[in-house]
């Protein structure tokens, strides 16, 4: 008996080991299936909601089909796996209404329409991947998105559904054209509102407090405008566009698409309940006015938001390149190219204001020996540590730079040489008494420093720098590990 128990334990342990190897893959597949099933449920809820909330009475023409946008997202995430799920969800949502009409073969005609919905998602996915593989990145992408991703797939599916319902007797042949047109508009609007929202939140899920505050204030403003527009003051509906435009400049795309989608859905839902400014005796004209307003508002806001995000990315890239051009990659200090203009600016300001400034030039004594003995990796660690010590011993307004190799400089605005000496002597003493721990060994180094002061006169920045350099070499020739200083004058320059 004990042998059998041991064998079972051994087998379980073996299976657990095998399962441990495949578990992450299995878990990933399970999560993907769970999300796909969640999408199917969401598709069904959106379809049923559209039938009840976005349908105009008495025609029951649905003005917005958010399920089409959800179908595209499902196909983008899960590929062909989404097709049977969309078909099932569409069939489940549409069959009760089809069965109530008491026509023959409701199962067949519902299945054809549901299959057309599924194929629309697949075609939209293929068009998206072919024409916009990187997604919506700039305002110009909206044209391709609107035509290739929104219109073409929905026109194909709407044509199949309209012919299917006309053949089955669910709608008259004289109604087929209007029905086709409204299907195209409703499905296209669903994709236009849902997919940018999905992409924006996939790209950036961060919620910054200032942006959330602006979103809340904008939401309250839009809510007030909607209330006024749908309670007897129709002109207020047109103020929603400039409010959303302002929001597009101040918050990220994810928050813009969220408030945009909610606002447009609210407008269509209230119109479906026979409220608001889009109520006229001519139903076709009312539908056209509503769709035009929603489409133009959505395209305008998305275009501005995408263009603003593109400009922000360009500016961020420019600043990154500028930073890379001005900052020493090893030490994080500003480099020679950035330091010399700062010295020029401070020189002119000091000359204009009659205030002094000090300039210190530093290098590490026998740095070549450090590289030769401990290697260049240790040399880089010494340079990095030296730069950190420099930063720790100066004020916030002082500018530390690496000019090249082991040559460093510090600009002391509004300071005399005697004030700069205090910081530099403190740095020299700390460097002398504290070895630098590198991967190779503890390295003891010292520094020679030359400091000069400008306090007016016809002296150029180059003369100031030359005098500091002379003092640095005087410190080295005097035995190194010391600070030499004086004020630059016409005679010394």
The ordered string of helix (H) and strand (E) elements is HEEHHHHHHHHHEHEHHEEHEEEHE
Number of domains as seen in the coordinates = 2
The strands making up the biggest β-sheet line up spatially as: 3-5-6-4-9-10
Mean pLDDT: 87
**Total number of β-strand segments?**
10
Q: What is the radius of gyration computed over CA atoms, rounded to a whole number of angstroms? A: 36 Å
First-last Cα distance:
100 Å
Which structural class do you get from the secondary structure elements? alpha+beta
Strand content: 5-15%
- What's the shape? elongated
Runs with pLDDT <50, length 5+?
11-20
Report the helical percentage: 55-70%
Protein name: diguanylate cyclase
EC number: 2.7.7.65
Main location: membrane
Membrane topology: Multi-pass membrane protein
Descriptive notes:
The protein has 493 residues and is α+β, with helices and mostly antiparallel strands. The protein has 2 domains: 39-321, no CATH class; 334-487, Reverse transcriptase/Diguanylate cyclase domain (Alpha-Beta Plaits, 2-Layer Sandwich). Helix content is 69%, strand content 9%. It has 15 helices and 10 strands. It has helices at residues 2-53, 66-78, 82-100, 106-131, 141-167, 176-203, 209-229, 240-250, 253-272, 283-326, 336-353, 367-374, 376-392, 417-433, 461-477, and strands at residues 55-56, 61-62, 334-335, 357-364, 399-404, 407-413, 436-437, 442-443, 447-454, 483-487. The chain has a 6-stranded mixed sheet, sandwiched between helices. A two-stranded antiparallel ribbon has the order 1-2. A two-stranded antiparallel sheet has the order 7-8. The chain is elongated. The N and C termini lie far apart (100 Å). Residues 355-488 form the GGDEF domain. It is a multi-pass membrane protein. Its EC number is 2.7.7.65. The chain crosses the membrane at residues 33-51, 63-87, 107-128, 149-173, 179-198, 210-230, 236-253, 288-306.
